[in-house]
Write a structure and sequence with these properties.
Elements: E1 2-9, E2 15-24, E3 33-36, E4 44-47, E5 54-59, H1 75-85
Antiparallel strand pairs: 1-2, 1-5, 3-4, 4-5
């Protein structure tokens, strides 16, 4: 199961990151337009539409099947990490 951050892109192309994360273990469906991110905690985001105002999902960690080490994430630990790091 992967953890995703929510991003928003304005019609002018400005990108912002939401403070919440969520777990998702299914296909991303309409979120198929991949873009590399620079200067954000995540390295890529999958947008719902290729241009203009849209919502995007960015994987924040590897899924269990992608990693030889299982890192336990929980919403309280993510919140604590954000508080400590300011992210």
């Amino acid at each position: 199961m992967a953890i995703y951050a929510i991003y928003t892109r304005t019609k002018d192309g400005a990108i912002s990151r939401d403070d919440s994360n969520f777990e998702w273990d299914d296909q991303l469906g309409p979120y198929m337009h991949e873009e590399q991110l620079t200067g954000w905690p995540e390295s890529k985001v999958f947008w719902r539409t290729q241009t203009g105002y849209t919502i995007g999902l960015a994987p924040t960690c590897a899924s269990r099947s992608d990693s030889s080490e299982l890192v336990a994430y929980s919403l309280p630990s993510i919140a604590a990490h954000k508080k400590l790091t300011g992210l």
